[in-house]
């Protein structure tokens, strides 16, 4: 896969043709939210920027995630939500992000409807993680995350039944839940495999 900025711009220009069936049903009661999926060009290839949440947070403590959160009244769009949250969580200035498009919405069992916003960062971007929310920010190669063979499917008990969630282990990391699900969807798009199969 060519993961150069030019190739990804061309590929993401076709996002409107991508269909995806969310594992968790989407409905109007879910709270609109957005995450930024930050892509960072490096000499060794495109990287995906992720964060590890601090251990004292009430929700998803210690988990690996994208910068993001619920849409607020002042947000003019879900892309604006993703940029605002990225600014608050890792100090990423909105003008340092080239928006490339959005993936289909992703439903969560906790009642959110997440819009993943794809953004290309400048390689010299300066991050200032909020120490209250973010324990660390780190990068994983897009080439690794784009390979479906690196994903696992796990069954979890949820309310009245079982659901399956994706996970993607990486040396020293274990990404699962909505973050892994969004990465799995991104991998499906890049591989031109609608539905992730």
Report the CATH architecture: Alpha-Beta Complex
Poorly predicted regions? none
Number of domains: 1
Helix content: 10-25%
User: How much of the polypeptide forms β-strand, as a percent range?
Assistant: 35-45%
Q: Looking at the structure, what is the overall shape?
A: globular
CATH topology descriptor: Nucleoside Triphosphate Pyrophosphohydrolase
Number of helices: 4
Number of strands: 11
What composes the largest sheet? 8 strands, mixed
CATH first level: Alpha Beta
Cα-to-Cα separation, first versus last residue: 18 Å
Radius of gyration: 16 Å
- The CATH homologous superfamily is called Nucleoside Triphosphate Pyrophosphohydrolase
Order of helices and strands: HEEEEHEEEEHEEEH
Strands, helices and their partners?
Layout (H helix, E strand, L loop, with lengths): L4 H8 L18 E10 L6 E7 L10 E2 L2 E3 L7 H13 L6 E6 L3 E2 L4 E10 L12 E8 H4 L6 E7 L2 E10 L2 E4 H14 L7
Parallel strand pairs: 1-7
Antiparallel strand pairs: 1-2, 1-4, 2-3, 2-8, 5-7, 6-7, 9-10, 10-11
Description of the molecule:
The chain is α+β, with helices and mostly antiparallel strands and 197 residues long. It has one domain (5-145): Nucleoside Triphosphate Pyrophosphohydrolase, CATH 3.90.79.10. The protein is 20% helix and 35% strand. It contains 4 helices and 11 strands. The strands form 2 sheets. Strands 1, 2, 3, 4, 5, 6, 7 and 8 form an 8-stranded mixed sheet that branches. Strand 10 and strand 11 form a beta hairpin. The longest helix has 14 residues, at 177-190. The mean pLDDT is 88.
């Amino acid at each position: 896969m060519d993961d150069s900025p030019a190739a990804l711009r061309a590929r993401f220009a076709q996002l409107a043709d991508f269909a995806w069936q969310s594992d968790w049903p989407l409905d109007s009661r879910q709270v609109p939210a957005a995450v930024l999926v930050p892509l960072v060009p490096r000499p060794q290839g495109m990287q995906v920027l992720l964060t590890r949440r601090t251990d004292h947070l009430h929700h998803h403590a210690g988990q690996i995630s994208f910068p993001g959160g619920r849409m607020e009244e002042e947000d003019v769009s879900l892309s604006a939500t993703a940029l605002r949250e990225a600014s608050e969580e890792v100090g990423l200035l909105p003008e340092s992000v080239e928006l490339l498009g959005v993936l289909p919405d992703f439903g969560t069992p906790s009642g959110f409807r997440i819009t993943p916003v794809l953004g290309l960062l400048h390689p010299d971007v300066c991050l200032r993680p909020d120490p209250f929310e973010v324990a660390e920010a780190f990068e994983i190669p897009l080439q690794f995350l784009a390979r479906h063979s690196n994903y696992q499917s796990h069954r979890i008990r949820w309310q009245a039944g079982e659901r399956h969630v994706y996970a993607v282990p990486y040396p020293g990391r274990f990404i699962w839940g909505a973050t892994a699900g969004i990465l799995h969807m991104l991998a499906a798009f890049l591989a031109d495999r609608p539905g992730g199969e």
